Amino acid sequence: MSQFLQLLFLLSIILIAAKVSGYVSIRLGQPSVLGELLAGIILGPSLLNVIGLPFLEHEMSEVIHLLGELGVLLLMFIAGLELNMTELRDTMRVAAVSGFMGVITPLLLGWGAGMLFGMEQNAAIFLGLTLGATSVSISAQTLIELRVLRTRVGLSLLGAAVFDDILVILFLSIFLALVSTGGGGAAGVLITVVRMGGFLLASAAFGVWVLPWVMRRISHLPIGESVMTISLLVMFFYGITAEVAGGMAAITGSFIAGLMLARTPEKDRIEAGTHTLAYALFVPIFFVNIGLSINLKEFQTEALLFTLVVTLAAIAGKWIGAGLGGRLTGLSNVESVQLGAGMISRGEVGLIVASVGMQQGLMNNNQFSAIIVMILVTTLVTPPILRWLFARSGGSAGKKPRWLKQTRAKSEANAHSEAS
Predict the structure, then answer these.
(1) What is the pLDDT of residues 134-147, one digit of tens each?
(2) Nearest to residue 96, comparing CAs of 170, 196, 165?
(3) What are the structural domains, with CATH classification, of the chain?
(4) Which of 268, 259, 159 is nearest to 211 (CA)?
(5) DSSP, res 293
(6) CA 391 to CA 30: how far, in whole Å?
(7) pLDDT tens digit string along 192-228?
(8) Is the full-model pTM beyond 0.70?
(9) If we measure between CA atoms, which residue out of 52, 73, 46, 75 comes closest to residue 6?
């Protein structure tokens, strides 16, 4: 069988499993993403090991992984498109405090758990950093399905996740600079901060002053789907620049690209085209691939107690830390609990951070297996918890809060007066 036919076979299996499991999950009152994650675990090395079939080449798993990475970029791009800068700016204080406390609290709990089980100081600190990571893509998809992405909780959650991403990468860079002989010490830390700040300023400036002009010009060209093509190129450019120049995750750049394009008149066309492309192919591959990357057979039973403690610390740290940050900055008790729950998932971000620890020799196989199980549990429990919490909130899912309506009304009034 040629490599092309092998790829077609794998894609067919993954898409069928994703859509069927997503449908079953919805019928059971859960978000479709939960079913897609479970489908990946069933298809992966934990059970069926579809990727390991004898007639499939090893390179196929890497191809599926890369297609899944495109899926998460598109998912965060859509999340950015569904917001606007004014709405996000109104939740900036909540996002900053929640994001900060959502990193510090699990970091301290993870460090404490590591020291309790006799880990070395550096290894315990790194364990805390692993617990501090957040994968907002899982929560973003769930909030989109529940139609609460543009409520105060949804906006605060996305903003907090951006702060979380920046802080974890910054702390990880500082940590590696201090423990590595070639890390550059204080100079390396300063370079990391400057790179991040420079990227954020440059991406915002380009999005505000240059991108609208480019989109206006492109939209009038007699080229098929020119708006969609340039939008994808902008997403790729922001993702590449975020990682290469800014030292941040590519998904952060993709999210910012969506925010910038949401300000253009072509937003609706971009959103419709991206939705079709993402949810027909790439996003299901991404969620299934998370399950494919986990092998529960490698879990060491002697690390069961350590795994349990780490998992509880991961859930409690995010839920309490980010939730308390929301409460301190004006969210209600219910909203704070919802915000904290949305930060629980570690997903692919946790896997990336954990893999860095293995490469640096900061953890052994038992500790790595425990972290993998923690990532799996936190990723699986987040969608049903969010569904349950929003269902308990009296059916408010999808309603816009009063402050958001007032903000939008004020913006429309200002636009009308300027037009007059």
Answers:
(1) 877 788 888 888 88
(2) 165
(3) 72-283+302-414 (1.20.1530.20)
(4) 259
(5) T
(6) 11
(7) 788 888 998 999 999 999 999 999 999 888 888 899 9
(8) yes
(9) 52
